Amino acid sequence: MVTSVLDVPLVTVHADTNDVFRAFMEAGLPEIEAATDSAFMAALYSVAAAKGIKHIMIGSSFRTEGITPHGMFYFDAKYVDNVYKSRAGPTAYPGDMLWLRPWLKWIVCDRIKRLNPLYYVDYDVYKTRDMLFDEYGWNWYDGHHRDNVFTEFCDNYWLPVKFGIDLRKVEYSALVRSHQMERDEALAKLEVPPSIGANTIDIVCSKLGITRNHLDSLITAIPGSRDDYATYKPTFKRMKPFFWLAAKMGLVPMSFYLKYCC
User: Fold this and answer.
1) What is the pTM of this model?
2) pLDDT over 90 percentage in the chain
3) For residues 100-109, b (16+ Cβ closer than 10 Å) or e, as one string?
4) Which residues face 115 on adjacent strands?
5) CB of 229 closer than 8 Å to CB of 219
6) Domain locations along the chain
7) Fewest beta carbons within 10 Å, which of 67, 204, 218, 222?
8) pLDDT exceeds cutoff 80 at 46
9) Within 10 Å of residue 63's Cβ, how many Cβ atoms?
10) φ and ψ at residue 64, rounded to 5 degrees
């Protein structure tokens, strides 16, 4: 593990998200990992606040991962909570998420900033993989986010099969623009449908406590709409001037302002 080699303490935060995963799938929505994304950011901010840390380093890179088009996906804590309630009843989702009130406290009072250092360097994903293998014994898992079984299921099965969304287009487009992949190579790769591990679907069904027949019925059911659920989006739009200033000050990503407030 890289953290062991670098002698960096590792804090692990566990989020039990199976119920909300299942709720999003039964609602026929694409953002089945929304709870994970929200819980991930909440954990980063809460640990940073508890430790007096002022900067959160994010390892994403628009040069190698790309940025999903505006409107393709949406998530916030209120959306996750309401989707969960629609399936589980009036009880709020019990997991930690990035709720608006504590988030505002973290960025305004604690002045915690999110930094994307890879945005400012000529980041080459292939050279980085070689370096990680040579220096830390890290092995490539043969696909973006395929280090996590549920994310692999989401990106390579749920999204393309149910919604016709192939996230490789976002990734490969970024690599082509940054001259790390030839356009013809990207098009050739996209001719082959996304693949998943031989046991991925069985593992996901077991994790969620559903049968394969139930999953098949969810895949073929009419997709749901995020417009049927309350979200923070109207609030974000009303707070547009605040978030514009926060983005200029580096307290929130400019991508958040553009996607959620405009």
Assistant:
1) 0.90
2) 66
3) eebbeebbee
4) 57
5) no
6) 2-231
7) 222
8) yes
9) 19
10) -120, -25
